[in-house]
Amino acid sequence: MSDAGESASPLTWGSRRARLALTATIMGSGLAFLDGSVIAVASPHIADDLGGGLATIQWVFDGYLLMLGALVLVGGSLGDLLGKRSVFIAGTAAFGVTSVLCGLAPTALILVVARMGQGAAAALVVPTSLALVNTLFGGADRGKAIGAWSGLAGVFTAVGPFVGGLLVDTGTGGWRWVFLINIPLVIGAITLALMSIPNVPGTRTSESLRSQVDVLGGLLAVGGLAFVVGPLIEIAKLGAWLTFVLVAIGLVLLALLVLVERRRERTLRPPPMVSLTLFRIRTFSVANVVTFVVYGALGSAFFLVTIALQQGMGYTAVAAGLAGIPVTVMLALFSSKVGGLLPRLGARTLLTVGPLIMAVGMVMLGMMRPGQSYWVGVFPGFMIFAAGLVLVVAPVTATALADVSANESGTASGVNNAVARIGSLIAIILLPLIGGLAASQAQGLQTGVDILDGYRTSMFAAAAICVFGAGLATVGFNRSDGRVVATEAAGR
């Protein structure tokens, strides 16, 4: 299992080893997605126990996404450099350690720092898990495997609010189980990875690791995003002018990141965190633009619905989590099948139709009113939304990686995941502002019809973003994009 030759023989879909390897990667990445969504229902209980009010809630939620979005590029690069399985296992173990720290945190500050550590660990796990799937499977099986990875990992995201509701309702301090429940999953993912995934060495040379890792690029990414995201969260306290100045500083840092990465490409000392030449691949670039737009709408919609169900519709935390079960079921049942359709229907068809259907579902969810039954006001919207989402998650990921070489698949998947997380993070901040919902209102200080009015506007804006994403897919992709995924994958 340790020789590189094993990587040349793709796993066969349906074989025992393929099932174990796929389960390991889904469990690992699912942990990261689960912890990103479960906080939506747990955060008020955290603030009650540890104090700090809304600032604690915001940074516990966003600190995780910030580190994940900024460092997932480094995680993908490290996977290519040190070996995908090794980095996947190390990241999963680190996620377990930081989960324990979160669960036992005695103060809000320690919890926020531990959450940021969780985000950094997730940045190792998520891109390498997808890169492993992309490397271990070949031919038509690759589309099925990526579909299963995307859909079932997405199930963890969708089920997060429900799991969180169950755990936080166990009593005082119940929110701590939101983090401690990760430990069995961590142990399972590592065990299955050791059993089924070959330990193929990365591309690291005999030079020092520091000379091969783009530390400056990672710091610029974290700093740039922090200066963009933080002031937008705190805009009510900072005021418009100071917020503008701080966001401008963040944009300058991100511009410096591009310049640094361009210089790294010329000198290769150290190699760039992300090769900008990847963006010369048209399918990669278009897929990532669509990912940024659609996943931004997706992330904000989940956030808004979870809050509105509890604060506007009067649902308990558990009931709010159960409301999203149709999304979980649809992703679990159909994502791998849709991944198999990509070579026949193409990326343009699926990634145009999918976001349009999602937009219809978002509009329907935006129309829910107090007093409506779940089956009339909520369920139909979730079903339509889920049907569109199933058409998006696997095709957009598979298309982003379709024309990327195996040696750069870790970096490429890191970029794709960073784009998805950053799009979601920014939309979660901006769309409530568009709807007139202050950060305090979004965290539940306002209830009933008032919050639903702002929620409706925000959901309509999310739907409009999905329509825009569909337009980008229509214009950016050719008819042949995605149809040749299986053929090209088999030839690599």
Percent of residues in β-strands = under 5%
Number of helices, counting only DSSP H or I runs of 4 residues or more: 20
| CATH architectural category of the largest domain | Up-down Bundle
Q: Can you identify the CATH class of the largest domain?
A: Mainly Alpha
Quickly count the domains. Answer: 2
Looking at the structure, the CATH topology of the largest domain is Growth Hormone, Chain: A
How much helix, percentage-wise, in residues? over 70%
Order of helices and strands: HHHHHHHHHHHHHHHHHHHH
Per the principal axes of the C-alpha atoms, what is the gross shape? globular
Distance between the termini: 21 Å
User: Helix/strand-derived class?
Assistant: mainly alpha
CATH H-level homologous superfamily name of the largest domain: MFS general substrate transporter like domains
- Radius of gyration (CA) equals 21 Å
The stretches of 5 or more residues where confidence is low (pLDDT under 50) are: 1-8, 439-446, 485-492
Number of beta-strand segments: 0
Report on the biggest sheet: none
Q: What's the pLDDT, averaged over the residues?
A: 81
SSE topology sketch:
Elements: H1 16-50, H2 53-82, H3 84-104, H4 108-136, H5 139-168, H6 177-180, H7 182-196, H8 215-233, H9 235-238, H10 240-267, H11 282-311, H12 317-323, H13 325-345, H14 347-366, H15 374-377, H16 379-402, H17 409-434, H18 439-445, H19 449-476, H20 485-491
